[in-house]
Design a protein that fits this description.
The chain is mostly helical. It has helices at 2-23, 25-33, 36-55, 72-89, 93-97, 100-132. The protein is elongated, with a radius of gyration of 18 Å.
Length: 133
């Protein structure tokens, strides 16, 4: 998870710098504000992950997601396909890069959702064991 976090921080910085160079500060802030619902969902999922992490801090956890990992190669191919579609549908390069922040937020939501589901499954397993004692 640590390498994934570093990757998300690095890509966030790259996206913001690209947006500032291409769109300027006001347009960048406006584009980020337009994603408020996704950012709200990200906040809620983050709170759920923090809740489960706090509840399960004293327990040994099982990684239920070990078989559900995507390779970097398949992720990049998936991203490139979306870039081609966005280039065509969003009227060129500017429209294409305007979707990058949305993709970043969606990727973070997917990552945190997978982690929240893993914590929830562990929570259920521990809760059921405690109920049977």
């Amino acid at each position: 998870m640590l390498n994934t976090r570093n990757l998300f921080v690095a890509t966030f910085i790259a996206i913001i710098l690209t947006y500032l160079m291409v769109f300027g500060e006001n347009k960048t802030i406006e584009m980020i504000k337009e994603q408020y619902l996704f950012l709200l969902a990200l906040l809620i999922i983050s709170l759920a992950v923090i809740f489960f992490k706090f509840k399960l801090k004293d327990y040994e956890l099982i990684n239920f997601n070990k078989n559900n990992s995507f390779s970097l190669q398949s992720t990049l191919v998936f991203f490139l396909i979306f870039q081609v579609v966005d280039y065509i549908m969003e009227d060129g390069f500017i429209g294409m890069i305007s979707q990058w922040f949305l993709y970043w937020v969606m990727g973070l939501i997917a990552l945190l959702l997978m982690e929240a589901i893993n914590y929830y499954k562990n929570y259920q397993l521990i809760y059921n064991k405690n109920q049977n004692i």
